[in-house]
Design goal:
This protein has one domain: Rossmann fold (3-Layer(aba) Sandwich), CATH 3.40.50. It is built from eight helices and ten strands. The strands form two sheets. It has a six-stranded parallel β-sheet. The protein has a four-stranded mixed β-sheet with strand order 8-5-6-9, with helices on both faces. A hairpin with a 4-residue loop joins β5 and β6. It starts with a helix and ends in a 6-residue tail after the last strand.
């Protein structure tokens, strides 16, 4: 095991304890393949499943496995127009399982996210019966301040490039606290506790995943 892998493993033990205090159920998987299998093991077949935009979910190849199993998938990528996308956004709030990642995770077990449309953080707050968060250990930071810095100056600028958004950060690589039409930083959410015990589940992955 490499020093980084051992560091990730040791840090995950701290995080799992901190999450438990906040009524969030957490697991550690060394590889993305193990993380994918863990996520699948937490969902009963025959259930309704949806997800928020996430490069992490793509990188662990979760969608292929979902399509090979007996789930009803609410997949907005199959929508024919904007009205269908909006319909799926709303239907996802009644899903049995909602899959997402997190922009940052603090060492004391808080999930920090910034959203554009807000559908992802809305589902994290309320609606789906269970939420499964899958995140690489590269997203772990010291505290809330560091989490916001990470999102504004790393995750968001990269995502604006990926999504072909014309924002200041897409050109400079750093947050300008903009109010542009293409801004993807419209809502900020800090999840410090799960109101319903273990409704939120976090799978920490010992790899660098997502932005």
């Amino acid at each position: 095991m490499t020093p980084r892998k051992k560091y990730y493993e040791n840090t995950s033990k701290t995080l799992i304890k901190e999450f438990s205090k906040r009524r969030i159920e957490a697991y550690y998987c060394e590889t993305k393949e193990l993380a994918k299998n863990k996520a699948l093991s937490l969902m009963q077949e025959g259930s309704v499943v949806s997800w928020g935009g996430s490069m992490t979910l793509h990188e662990i190849d979760l969608f292929t496995s979902l399509k090979d199993r007996d789930y009803t998938l609410l997949d907005r990528s199959l929508a024919k127009d904007v009205s269908q996308v909006d319909k799926i956004y709303h239907e996802a709030l009644s899903a049995d399982y909602y899959l997402t990642s997190s922009n940052a995770i603090t060492l004391d077990g808080k999930l920090v996210n910034i959203d554009g449309n807000g559908n992802r953080i809305a589902a994290l707050i309320y609606g789906p019966r269970e939420v499964i968060v899958i995140a690489g250990m590269n997203k772990v930071v010291l505290d809330e301040d560091e989490a916001l810095k990470r999102i504004r100056n790393e995750a968001s600028p990269i995502n604006t490039v990926r999504l072909d958004k014309n924002t200041p950060c897409s050109h400079t690589g750093k947050c300008a606290d903009c109010l542009s039409d293409d801004c993807i930083c419209c809502q900020t959410l800090i999840t410090r506790m799960s109101r319903v015990p273990n409704r939120i589940k976090v799978i920490l992955v010992g790899e660098e995943l997502g932005y």
